Amino acid sequence: MSGWTRKDLVGIVDLSAAEIGTVLDTAKSLQEISTRSIKKVPTLRGRTIANLFFEPSTRTRISFELAEKRLSADILNITGSTSSTAKGELLKDTIRNIESLKVDMVVIRHSCTGAPHRLAEALNVSVVNAGDGINEHPTQALLDMFTIREKKGRLKGLKVLFVGDILHSRVARSNIWGLTKMGASVVLCGPKTLLPPRIEELGVTVTTNLREAVKDADVINLLRIQKERQDQSFFPSIREYAIAYQINSEILKKAKPDVLIMHPGPVNRGIELSSEVADGPYSVILDQVTNGLAIRMAVLYLLSGAKSIESKKE
Amino acid sequence: MQTKTVLNADEVKKAITRISHEIYERHHDLKRLALIGIRTGGAILAKRFQAQIETMTGQKIPLGLLDITLYRDDLSEVGPQPDIGKTEIDFDVSGKTIILIDDVLYTGRTIRSALDAIIDFGRPTCIQLAVFVDRGHREFPIKPDFVGKNIPTAPEEQVVVKLQETDKIDEVVVMTQKDVTS
Amino acid sequence: MDVIIQNAKVIDPKNKTNAVLDLYIKRGKIAELKKDIQAKDVPVLDAKNLCLIPGLIDLHVHFREPGYEQKETITTGALAALKGGVVAAVTMPNTDPPCDHHSVVDNIIRKAREVPFHIFPAGTISQGRAGKYLSEMVDLKRAGIWAVSDDGDWVGDSLLMRRALDYASMLDLLVITHAEDHRLSADGVMTEGLVSTKLGLRAKPNASEDVAVARDIELARLTGARLHIAHISTRGALDFVRRAKSQGLLVTCEVTPHHFALSDEALVRYDTNFKMNPPLRSEEDRKAMVEGLKDGSIDAIATDHAPHTQEEKMLEIDHAPCGVLGVETSFGVAMTELYHKKVLSFEEIIHKMSVRPAEILKLPAQFGQIRVGDKANVTLVAPDHEWVVDPAKFASKSKNSCFIGQKLKGKVMATVCDGKLWQWEKIS
Questions:
Q1: Does C311 touch chain A (CB under 8 A)?
Q2: How many domains does one find in chain B?
Q3: B139 within a domain of the structure (yes/no)
Q4: Which of A57, C92, C423, C424 has CB atoms 3.0–4.6 Å from C151's, for a disulfide?
Q5: Are residues C261 and C305 in the same domain?
Q6: Which PANTHER family does this one have (chain A) (predicted)?
Q7: Domains of chain C: total
Q8: Chain A neighbors of B120, CB-CB under 8 A
Q9: Which residues of chain B are within 8 Å of residue A4 when distances are taken between CB atoms?
Q10: CB–CB of A37 and B121 under 8 A?
Q11: A87 is catalytic
Q12: How far is C260 from chain A (nearest CA, A)?
């Protein structure tokens, strides 16, 4: 048995190292399905999964959708802007609708922190957080860890550097929880305005000096910089941000020869990283996309047992 | 728990040799033959058959390992999901004669799942079934083509094929729960 | 109304009373206060083992009327307050229309009288709470306001605030400030710190309160006005108040029960019933509030009773409105957290919840003490009575309490307001 008994995956913060290991191992076994001529298994046949995307997302939504299809689930796509949920339909009504439609699992992306947590509390069915506010993006962290483990053979003892807007990054936050649990050391680098307060108390190292930080990193995970942040005075200009924090071939000369370059996408070429790095030999950005599929299949598979766990309890 | 040994190490070895011979007798054209073992017991046995056939003929026939978890018909009833083993079928199954190998044949549900899984990899010419132990109680119309030993059992009994690779011993035992409440 | 409350332990810090006495309320007025009162045909309430204290006064409530009657009305708010042992309250002016016109003041006071309940409304500092032009404070005072405040909208324009303090002090109006630099608070929904970093919620720093308190104190120094800092919540702001008091400025402040009872850790489940403004602060800040109550730098306990509908509080934490109920639980929370944990004596709690609020507002003699000849405004409490906060029992129209399910020790058993007796629990 996998030992997985959780109904929901709302945050890496809740998971143990063993549970993270279970997801990664399961994903490893599922990878092969995507290489078959018939890329589909009947595992979730007859199950309905609702993808609730209250915030625009292409990559994550497509990845979940394909993972669901590969497992033969039926899919219900519900998209909407957060503003309409705030003013019109309440989260509560969404919940009621989902229950009425007899959905078995919900994948939710929401611009507000905690929305998946509230949903998970209110629903009997499994909830997967596909990104909430500035809080967590658990499947992204899992696929990042998976990719690192695939390429480096381990997570323990590795130094993983995150560069960019840590403050607003759910990718960074989920990775911090996960990587520290798996025994990797995490270094965060970005302008001081984009570093969360007291983050070092979570067991990570914080620096504003990129040139120093890249030196002994085994992995550099770049975070997408949002151009509108300059309007809120987080940094003076995109130009200056690129001068100080862009990963390009020049700065990579200081890095280890086998460093991995990761990015959750979509990439702002010429801002957080240069094109030659994005397409270069260190880049595993496309592996991340491929691995995302196996990770999401693994998560859906593991959670799909939760319903029977719940009913057994009753 | 009462344990009865039905086959000892020597008998296990003999059975493997016999089945391997039977497979070869029925399929002289080894080029079109492939073995697929069902994880975990069937996979180990498949490796033994492969080795035995290689010893006999000097030819190494392709071997695939199959995990049928994703094809099980009882997933929604089992609670915490089972671990998924890796499926490794590195050859094209289309046009091949597949010998599907499992350790114990019981209800036939595992074999049903395995047939579905193999078909997702292509269109074999034919699939034959080799099992080490047939203990009866079929729930599906499935019949083995090669059998190590028929062991009539009661439903509450458990048949375990122990193999050197995982259990440090080759033997087949039948276990009976003496007192169900204990 | 006539009633004799017998054998109650009467505790009236102002008059230094602490004795088991009978209280005779005759036609709503306190006729007698002594041992063994005998009177014919007067109903008797045997208050053995209970304490009779001056009615509680809440310096900070939102009763939402006019404009937001779906959340609370003056009637439901007053009933909730009475249930919490409160006989008088200062309503904040963030209604719709805001309390910047005498007609709004008239309406509030009239509706309160019907209950009967005492509301001492706060009018706005600026017209429409827009921070541009001063409100017509002379007219508002004639209509019945006792204080001015722009409530949640801190007067960011320092010149306007200076003028407001000068003008209000001319009228001897208390100026209440919700001190917060909103620009600095940005889009924060909780306090900035380790917990916000862990929870991934947008946060606002203590400094947004600290800088605003500091400015307002300096303007109070400049103008000599009476400045009251609403719901103080940071240790930094409290230090500014301490300094101002030591320098003899007319600065007072209040703290809410949730700011001395809870800290930011309460937000772990993203429950919107823990979203308020100021936000729940760190444990260090919470301890500083307790310390401030103890050393007297915090004058009063006020609830910032802020009802919101369940629909509103069901929104995601980023979108749900700030605020929690307070009046029905404030006495219980204060007793549980301060009296039973031996931070304050019972007299000191009465001081913070009745005596001092009456002084800050400069209320008439019938408030903050128990005196023969005055209209009866008293509260009967059971200091050791344990109870669990149950929203189904709230008199308030809303249910957004941050103490739901909590066991409290100390309960209001009956309230006499404006001479009318409200009995909440069975009294043997």
A1: yes
A2: 1
A3: yes
A4: C92
A5: yes
A6: ASPARTATE CARBAMOYLTRANSFERASE, ORNITHINE CARBAMOYLTRANSFERASE, MITOCHONDRIAL
A7: 2
A8: 36, 38, 40-41
A9: 80-81
A10: yes
A11: yes
A12: 23
The CATH number linked to C295 is 3.20.20.140
Q: Which chains touch C (3 or more CB pairs under 8 A)?
A: A
Verify whether residue A109 is a known catalytic residue: yes
Q: Which residues of B touch A (CB under 8 A)?
A: 67, 70-71, 75-88, 116-117, 120-122
Convert the pLDDT of each residue in A169-185 to its tens digit.
Answer: 999 999 999 999 999 99
Residues forming CATH 3.40.50.1370 domain(s) in chain A: 12-136+291-313, 138-289
Q: Which domain range does residue C124 map to?
A: 55-361
Per-residue tens of pLDDT for chain C, all 428 residues: 799 999 999 999 999 999 999 999 999 999 999 999 988 899 999 999 999 999 999 999 999 999 999 999 999 999 999 999 999 999 999 999 999 999 999 999 999 999 999 999 999 999 999 999 999 999 999 999 999 999 999 999 999 999 999 999 999 999 999 999 999 999 999 999 999 999 999 999 999 999 999 999 999 999 999 999 999 999 999 999 999 999 999 999 999 999 999 999 999 999 999 999 999 999 999 999 999 999 999 999 999 999 999 989 988 899 999 999 999 999 999 999 999 999 999 999 999 999 999 999 999 999 999 999 999 999 999 999 999 999 999 999 999 999 999 999 999 999 999 999 999 999 86
For residue B65, the distance in angstroms to the closest alpha carbon of chain A comes to 12
- Which of C58, C304, C384, C418 is an active site residue? C304
Is B142 a domain residue? yes
- Please indicate if any CB of chain B lies within 8 Å of the CB of A29: yes
Homologous superfamily assigned to A12-136+291-313: Aspartate/ornithine carbamoyltransferase (3.40.50.1370)
Question: Of these residues, A47, A110, A117, A137, which one is catalytic?
Answer: A137
Do C299 and C185 share a structural domain?
yes
A86–C315: do the CB atoms touch at under 8 Å? Answer: yes
- Which residue of chain A comes nearest to B77, CA vs CA? A308
Cβ-based contacts of A92 with chain C (< 8 Å): 314
CATH code that applies to domain A138-289: 3.40.50.1370
Catalytic residue among A28, A59, A152, A256: A59
Q: Do chains C and B touch (3 or more CB pairs under 8 A)?
A: no
Which tens digit of pLDDT belongs to each residue from A55-102?
888 899 999 999 999 999 999 998 876 544 444 456 777 777 878 888
